[in-house]
Write a structure and sequence with these properties.
The protein is elongated. The longest helix has 28 residues. The protein contains 12 helices and 11 strands. Strands 3, 4, 5, 6, 9, 10 and 11 form a 7-stranded mixed β-sheet that branches. The protein folds into 3 domains: about 90 residues, Arc Repressor Mutant, subunit A; about 100 residues, 3-Layer(aba) Sandwich (D-Maltodextrin-Binding Protein, domain 2), CATH 3.40.190; about 100 residues, D-Maltodextrin-Binding Protein, domain 2. Helices cover about 45% and strands about 20% of the residues. α1 packs across α4. It comes from Rhizobium lusitanum.
Length: about 325
């Protein structure tokens, strides 16, 4: 017959092991020591193996089997605590899961900070995270696959959607230091970039079909994601716009250089929270929206990136020497 220990037996076993004695466990659990001993004896009978060595020592010592069972007991009781927290949350309206779609345009440090605090504040709430480009975030929310979306590229207003501006990110055109555009020591014109390969992310959704954003070159390479675009630009295979938060370290270390191109509409890139009107956020999702608002509405990136750009911009003396 398979063992069928009770949760109470496992709790008593764990308390004895952690407190160091049967008498200490009786005080912790506010039970008679005889009850503690009886419970452990029944558990050992269920498992058909001794959990404590009782001879030769005044204090109970775990057997080899007891040490193994102790880890199982801890895991089972920990899972029980998670279940209890989830039930409590559901009774008070807390979601069992939050599904969020986050655009790659959202600064990475803001995403990491929000999700770290979300984990600590809502340990019983599961998280499903999708990252997407351009209209993908909107599509995930509209289809109901995501509870909320955080990102830009809100292409059209829809009465079935609630759209709130949270703050902004920052876009800038860049190239590798060895790229021909990076060698031109003056502000760039449209004529300079027309014949150079521009790397452009193609939206996986249909929401931006037929629309181009800051596409200036005649030669275009279409890519499926911004991570690939980032790597190809660093590799010198073309130029293009990237989120400033993604390339800050590249600018500091000289792996990428900012292109002084007035024709490229760089600057603040608005970030929105998006949800379906018929699916209002629960406490955890509502907290996440406000957490992103707090971080993105106070975005200092513009000043920081200007400093980073200036570090790698040659001064007039350097240009004269060249």
């Amino acid at each position: 017959m398979l063992p069928n220990p009770t949760l109470d037996q496992l709790q008593v076993f764990l308390t004895v092991a952690e407190s160091g004695s049967f008498s200490a466990a009786s005080r912790v659990l506010n039970r008679a020591q005889s009850v503690i001993s009886y419970t452990i004896a029944n558990l050992e009978a269920q498992l058909e193996m001794p959990l404590f060595e009782r001879s030769g020592s005044r204090q109970p010592k775990l057997t080899d089997a007891g040490r193994v069972m102790l880890e199982d007991a801890r895991r089972i009781l920990s899972d029980l605590q998670v279940m209890r927290a989830r039930v409590k949350g559901l009774k008070t309206g807390l979601e069992a899961e939050v599904a969020v779609a986050i655009s790659v345009m959202v600064p990475t440090n803001a995403t990491v900070d929000v999700l770290r605090e979300f984990r600590d504040r809502f340990p019983s709430v599961s998280l499903r995270l999708d990252a997407g480009e351009l209209g993908t975030m909107m599509e995930l929310v509209a289809s109901g696959k995501s509870t909320i979306g955080i990102g830009g590229a809100v292409i059209k207003q829809d009465d079935s959607m609630v759209i709130e501006r949270l703050g902004h990110s920052f876009m800038m055109p860049v190239a590798s230091p060895g790229h021909p555009l990076a060698q031109i020591r003056r502000p760039l014109t449209l004529a300079d970039v027309r014949e150079e390969v521009q790397l452009v992310v193609t939206d996986a959704s249909n929401l931006t079909k037929g629309r181009d954003f800051n596409v200036l070159s005649y030669k275009i390479w279409h890519l499926s994601d911004i991570a690939t675009k980032h790597q190809l630009i660093r590799g010198g295979l073309g130029w293009g716009g990237l989120p400033a938060s993604l390339i800050y370290e590249d600018l500091q270390k000289g792996r990428l250089v900012h292109l002084d191109l007035d024709a490229y509409e760089q600057g603040e890139y608005p970030i929105y929270a998006v949800r379906k009107l018929s699916n209002p956020p629960g406490p955890a999702a509502a907290w996440m929206i406000e957490a992103f608002r707090d971080r993105l509405s106070q975005c200092p990136d513009r000043v920081d990136f200007k400093a980073a750009i200036d570090v790698f911009r040659p001064d007039e003396n350097q240009l004269a020497a060249e």
